[in-house]
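Sequence only, no structure available. Ideas?
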Amino acid sequence: MEKIVIVFDFDKTIIDIDSDNWVVDELGATDLFNQLLPTMPWNTLMDSMMKEFHSEGKTITNIIDVLFRVPIHPRIIPAIKKIHALGCDLRILSDANLFFIETILNHLGIKECFSEIYTNPSYVNDEGRLRIVPYHDFNSLSMDVIDGKIIEKMQDSMAKEGEMKKRTIIYLGDGAGDFCPSLRMTENDFDATEEFSGLGFDLRE
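Reply:
I predicted one. Tokens follow.
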């Protein structure tokens, strides 16, 4: 029996906004973020912003409260639960970070719907500060290229298990940042990025 693997982008796909920008804006650091943006890689910048928040006395609880308020289309959660119940293997491939994603998914009650989350690692250190680090396998690459590499690794893993002929991968993203992952789709797979962006197929309908 064919197995369907649905790989979701997270920002602007499962949730309606970019989670990094949401946290920065809601905690009042937009100007500093924009000032530092040209000077360092994205994940280094986000880690620096977490350091700044910590130095200002903002806590992990403050960050969690902001994440709990992320806007999300009302039909996304029922749609995810429905396709999970149908037996689809749901995964997330995102350039956000694990703490943000898991916090939001747990709050929405859908974390258990996903078998894998491929994203930048993050953790709370002994000082109570959130640390964000790049995806360790591909530190020198852009996140869009990394997403494509992860799709390739996923396909290689399935091939080694003899599953590629039995599985169809459907990729759901929001736009240009999903270009590299979409190029890794095989003839058996389906890139629904444009359709999900409003040109046709939409899980929210």
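The first helix runs from residue 19 to 26.
Hope that gets you unstuck.
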